[in-house]
Amino acid sequence: MTSRNSKLSASLSLLLTIALFACSVSNQPAVTETSSPSAEAPTTEAAAPAVGDLQAVSLLGENLYAQVDTEGVIAEADAALAAAPDDVELLIAAGRARRNFWQYRGAIELYTRAIALAPDDWRAYRFRGHRHISLREFDLAVPDLERARSLAPHNWDVAYHLGLAYFVSGRFDDAANEYLRCLAMSDDPDANAAQSDDFRSCSQNADDPESMVAMTEWAVRALLRADRNNDADRLIDGVAPDLAIETNVAYYNDMLFYKGLMSANELLDLDEDSPYRLETVGFGIANWMLVNGQPESAIEIFEGIVADPWWPGFGRIAAEVELARMRGGA
Prior knowledge:
- This protein is mainly α.
- It has a domain at about 50-150: Serine Threonine Protein Phosphatase 5, Tetratricopeptide repeat (Alpha Horseshoe).
- Helices cover about 60% and strands about 5% of the residues.
- The protein is built from 17 helices and two strands.
- Strands 1-2 form a two-stranded antiparallel ribbon.
- The two termini are about 25 Å apart.
- Residues about 25-45 have low confidence and may be disordered.
């Protein structure tokens, strides 16, 4: 390792320690940026959540547990469903009630029932595919999300999660193409017509910078891994350095990092008041380092990310994939 990389590595080690300490002492987890209506951050304080059932085993061998719903959110949704057990809307609602408590096995069962009742409804495929990603079941996530795309080709959330499923499966070209497909529909008449309060269309990339930044940043991640640097540079250059971003700050800051306007040290220097978690901003930086000749620094960040107990996060899942692949387990 060069002297420059040694200094960077030492700085990253210190910053990662600080960032993980901040995550552990924060009473309310920092905003998790899934850029989707189904945000992972629970509505209750999670300093010491009650541990629920085993949901999955991480790609590095860690048992991943649900949380217990102590406020009765799930019980309320289940009571409504019990009165009309074949109501697709209530099945989906009961599944989504479980998301903030990481009870993904039960959610998948409910979405499967919804699919049996309404096989041409794209929503249950989208939600079930998302939950298969959460449980590290990428081979099941991809066909669900591809089916959702065939039923709702203009939907932003379908494209976003399908791109992610491709990415964590190592299908970087497919991931990049999916993100670019949605970004290209910014001015598409059919995509514009599909937009509604209940349907986030890919046309939203044109007038909602929050959606555009999240989609673009994952596209850049995939393009870099697919060795399509010219396409990545085009997207990076197209993002203005002065956007008003409030929710997807981490994704936007990663874009500013790619543009050379922010440093890795700046972005990794988190405290308990930071507007995002290490996993979101950190994975973008580590992914960039991985393809730019700094694998040791990338590995340090990946290891810091997977040390965070917030196991449903997309950055955490992707970091597990990278480390498992490097260790011969994926």
